[in-house]
Amino acid sequence: MLSTYRVLLVGYFGLGAVIVFWNIAVASRILQARRSASTAGVATGLAALLLVPALVVAVSDASMVYGRAIQPVAWLWPAVTLLFVIQAATALSQGRVNAMLGVPILAYDVVIAIVAIARHLNALGYTPPYFSLVLSAAQCDALGVVAGSAALSHATWLLIPMFSPALPSRSRIRIAFRYGLALGVSVATALVLVELPGASEAISSYTRYQHDVLTARNGGDFQFGLKIFPDLRSSPPPVALKNDFQLADSLGTDGISIVVDPEAARGKALDSLVRSLDNVRDDSTVLIVTLGYARRARADLNRSPSAYVEGRLADVNRLTRALRPNIIVPAYEPYGEGARALGIRTPEFWIDLIERSAAIAHHVNPNIRVAVAASSFGARDSVVYRWAAGRSSPVDVLGFSLMPGFDGAVSLDTHMRIAQRWLRATPRPKPHWVFAAGGYPVAHGQQSQLLALRGVLAWATSQQAVRGIVFTDAGDYDAQRGLRASDGRFRPALGELERSIAAERESAGQ
């Protein structure tokens, strides 16, 4: 029996596929029926021709791996969405389509075009009009029902525009199909529009951090880290090797953080990673290595839990021996990334895995510190945290992932309050790190990323037990949340990080 989530997922991808084929069929009929050129005919022909290439550009342009090459045609996706609006508006205004079909399709296409244009302006470094930014955030909220938090930062989650049926049909099946599609896009539009109030509140919520300041740590015991590279399933991309190391060096960060999925924790990929890190490792650089999840992790775990766990322990063994990290995180956000990859597992599952991983890491090198990070701040996360915070636990470093949510800074504030409560409830707390801090510049605007970072930095430096923070990410790779956008342009959050590092260095020198 299909779960609600799987039904929604199938519905999302099914509607997208149907709309693509619908567009091809409708464009073919319209163009065959027209003998002379017209505005609607030209818009229909161009949109049909460019739809698939524009989709490829929209997805590929979001990654630094392809962004520089595709940047000259990044305008293609917003241009194509405008062509769909022209076709739908013309068909409706000329009476070529019934209003019950034409109005919902036009409204749907207009929403997509506004979001596409707003995001393109954002990518060029301009601040889009407030309403369009709110609509962009609302679309993320609506898609979050299916995609989860990935909708905030992954370009693959978008809506596909639709042609208006500008020719009549006598087939009852075709008529029913048209109205079915119109109903589908009406639901999609409604889901976006009902999220507008919440999206507006989310974007404005970041202003609470506008006047936050760092707490001077006179002992110089606060460190700054930067997550570099995409989550690695193979060797690091050359563009990441060049750009991320340069950025970390120019910032003067104390450490670097990488996420290594099991596919890259062995063989030639691991050898390549070792060679890459040998060029930047020194005695003062803190290397944080997090073991991620394989693509088929859930299926592997369900098939044989014991074999899956043994495989992860073998990965921990290889990573600790090959990379010699200062800190290793054997379970990437148990109730964040872990829940998305493996489903919800009991705290006992994660405690056993972390405990066994710690034994391996400490056997390889007693100086390696084993860490665990809370991200959902729910009851299960609390159980794992309390166990890890205990003096008898083999965990050396505890941490938090502090990223905004669909509601912007509201959930971020809540998580920081929970984290502070956990810290206060722990006598003589172990060292803590914030292993992920940042924001979502595409979904909520570039200023929101800067302010979210400022808020977390202010909180982290005010907590004596928190010894460091890692900014997520150096660049746009898997997700659009980097200091460097896919076209190589730096986002304003870089200046905030630079100022924070300089301020802490100055206070440490006094």
Give the SSE string. HHHHHHHHEHEHEHHEHHEHEHEHHEH
Number of strands: 8
Radius of gyration, in Å, reads 25 Å
- Into which percentage range does the β-strand content fall? 5-15%
The backbone outline, from C-alpha atoms, is elongated
Write the SSE topology.
Elements: H1 4-33, H2 39-60, H3 64-70, H4 76-93, H5 99-123, H6 130-147, H7 172-193, H8 196-205, E1 223-227, H9 238-251, E2 255-260, H10 267-278, E3 286-291, H11 297-303, H12 305-323, E4 327-329, H13 337-342, H14 347-364, E5 369-374, H15 379-389, E6 397-402, H16 409-424, E7 432-437, H17 441-444, H18 446-462, E8 466-471, H19 493-509
Parallel strand pairs: 1-2, 1-8, 2-3, 3-4, 4-5, 5-6, 6-7, 7-8
Helix pairs in contact: 1-2, 2-4, 4-5, 5-6, 5-7, 6-7, 6-8, 11-12, 12-14, 14-15, 18-19
Structure description:
There is one protein chain. This protein starts with a helix and ends with a helix. The protein has two domains: 4-194, no CATH class; 225-509, Glycosidases (TIM Barrel), CATH 3.20.20. The model has no long low-confidence stretch (mean pLDDT 92). Strands 1-2-3-4-5-6-7-8 form an eight-stranded parallel β-barrel, surrounded by five helices. Strand 6, helix 16 and strand 7 form a beta-alpha-beta unit. The protein has 510 residues and is an alpha/beta fold. 57% of the residues lie in helices and 9% in strands. The protein has 19 helices and eight strands.
